[in-house]
Amino acid sequence: MNDSSPQGILVCDKPQGLSSHAVVSRIRRWFGTRKVGHAGTLDPMATGVLVLGLGRGTKLLGHITGVSKTYDATIRLGAGTPTDDADSEPDLIADPAVLAAVADADIETGVAALRGPIDQVPSAVSAIKVDGKRSYARVRAGEDVVLDPRRVEIDRFDILETRRDLGSGNIDVDVAVDCSSGTYIRALARDLGADLGVHGHLTALRRTRVGPFDLGAAVTIPDDLDSPTPPLLPLAEAAAALLPTVTVDAAGAKALMQGKSLAGPWTSGGEALASGAEVAVVGDGELVSVAEIRGDGSLKSRTAFAIGLA
């Protein structure tokens, strides 16, 4: 199972101004490896948790992409922008009298309406593909793009502070959001402003959690990429934070890597694992595979991580 190239998960605190792709490029240079990917884009203006996989860690990213996330954000009411955030200039300005009439209770009512399961129309300037082409590329080419709504879950949408500067024509609302994967926080800002009749966009965004990974585990990317690299989160540890875990011996690990099934039943933490459950299979302290419990209770590998066994 040994491999001299970097293998594992890195949780970084993305700085403002860098795209997620630019972060991947910097990590490639810092760790001296080409095989690097990330689990969920952050816009250049955003900061915070960006989870990266190195080496075989890239295989685990698909299991991280779909987890819930937490954000701190600032929504500016009183103006809308083409990108629904501060990366473009306002093109929609609220009537000052209408904005002045918006009370704190109105804002809370608008926020409450966006909690729970909602059908959200993603921002047109997004990476979603429309007929094989990124939506943002179509917008930049002058096309009028309206994306289909998507069902997302907003578990928490709390107002932390409201600041009024009506002389400048805006109300800034600091919020905290727990949400499902696929949620656009700038679309929440846009929709809150639209519901209040005053337009809205995002001026700050910081992702504080991606599933089990939070800022407490995040590293800062140095300017000097000759600096020593931090230790990576081992694949077995990262997988165990995401999925139920079962342990196999060397013979079982080899059988899984050869495409064979291991007879059940299987348990994790004393709980029986149901048919269809995805599990992390660990052998000798290393991640062997992500496997599935089949209808007959047996274990079948779906994604192999160990090498040198098959």
UniProtKB/TrEMBL annotation:
Primary role: Responsible for synthesis of pseudouridine from uracil-55 in the psi GC loop of transfer RNAs.
InterPro entries assigned to the protein according to its UniProt record, in alphabetical order: PsdUridine_synth_cat_dom_sf, PsdUridine_synth_N, tRNA_psdUridine_synth_TruB, TruB_C
Catalytic activity: uridine(55) in tRNA = pseudouridine(55) in tRNA
Family label: Belongs to the pseudouridine synthase TruB family. Type 1 subfamily.
Name of the top EC class for this enzyme: isomerase
E.C. number(s) listed in UniProt: 5.4.99.25
Domain tRNA pseudouridylate synthase B C-terminal, first and last residues per copy: 186-222
Catalytic machinery residues: D43 (nucleophile)
Protein's name according to its UniProt entry: tRNA pseudouridine synthase B
CDD domains recorded: PseudoU_synth_EcTruB
All copies of domain Pseudouridine synthase II N-terminal, residue ranges: 28-185
UniProt keyword terms in alphabetical order: Isomerase, tRNA processing
Keyword tRNA processing set for record: yes
Coiled coil stretches, renumbered: none
